[in-house]
Amino acid sequence: MSSEVKCQDGTMGLMFFLAPGLDGKDGEDGKEKLFFLALKRARKETITVEETEGEETKKVEVTKYGDFHSLAGPGGKRDGNEDIETTMKREFEEETGCEARIVRPLAIYRDKMHSRKEYDCHVFLVLPKHDLEKLGNIEDEEKLKNHGYEPMVWEETYEQIKAALDNGRSILEDRLQIGPVAENRFAFISLVNLVEKRPELGSAKAIVDMYERSGEKVPVLDRAFVEKCRS
Fold it and tell me: What are the residues whose beta carbons fall under 8 Å from the beta carbon of 124, sequence distance 6 or more?
């Protein structure tokens, strides 16, 4: 009698805020838009190089980080027997430097990674516990090397992912040309699943209403915060 193998549990947190867009003319702020704080993970590669000391040449393995390529909300896998909300809070702080509080759960999806590993990803709507002044103050040296942050306009990001899905393309291999700078950006599978299975979340109004139904308000930040994160 066979039994289903339980997958590793993981998390992804989506933190939304309102701020002026960066499309204003003549130095004026653009129209207020709904952003989410996107975590950009850099590709990690181990390569073999030759090093010479005196007359001796030896081969050594070196870890390097390529372009930021994985776009999602902060999150990660459960450690030991911790409850999943604790995992979400811990991962958010480890990856952003800011403490988080959970507004509400959004979904649970079975995610198949590019590596073929499968995770049950718990997606949460989160808010910073205090403020975002500590954004980027990360203690983990490894995460400092391969993590970046960028406020992304939610509706634009959503439509990019949805268009790729509608065209039958692999979103893990398609570049998303979003934002002011073209980079090698790929949507993380947890974000793709949310777009594919929760079409009602595609509008800014739907997100704002969801906060309000939970007794919360979407934070309103200034343009300087958006520009700082993108610098």
Answer: 11, 12, 13, 14, 85, 88, 102, 103, 104, 105, 106
- What residues contact residue 217 under an 8 Å CB cut-off, 6+ apart? 211
Sign of CA dihedral 209, 212, 213, 216: positive
CB atoms within 10 A of CB 15: 24
pTM flag (> 0.85): no
Exposed/middle/buried for 62, CB within 10 Å: 0-12, 13-18, 19+? exposed
The torsion of the CA quartet 77, 91, 225, 139, rounded to 10 degrees, works out to -120
- DSSP letters along 46-87, please? EEEEEEEETTEEEEEEEEEEEEEEEEE-S--BPPTT--HHHH
Other CB atoms within 10 A of residue 217 CB: 11
Report how far residue 22's alpha carbon sits from residue 37's, in angstroms, rounded to the nearest whole number. Answer: 15
How many Å separate Cα 19 from the centre of its chain?
Answer: 18
Provide the 3-class DSSP secondary structure of residue 3: coil
**Residue 18 · residue 33 · CB < 8 Å:** yes
Condensed to tens digits (0 to 9), the pLDDT of residues 108-157 reads 988 776 566 788 899 999 998 876 666 666 666 655 556 677 788 899 88
**Helix or strand (DSSP H, E) at 37:** strand 32-53
